[in-house]
Amino acid sequence: MLMSPLEFFRSLPKKVCPECGEGVEEQAESYLMECDRCLSKKEE
Known about the structure:
Elements: H1 5-11, H2 36-43
């Protein structure tokens, strides 16, 4: 039996920053992979 789309998206693992391993808070229409802290380090 197929699960509902809502159940599917709730069951996905949280996004994790590949640089430091910290959880990334996802935003709509955002394709960023790094957390804000690692992104700010790259801009320096």
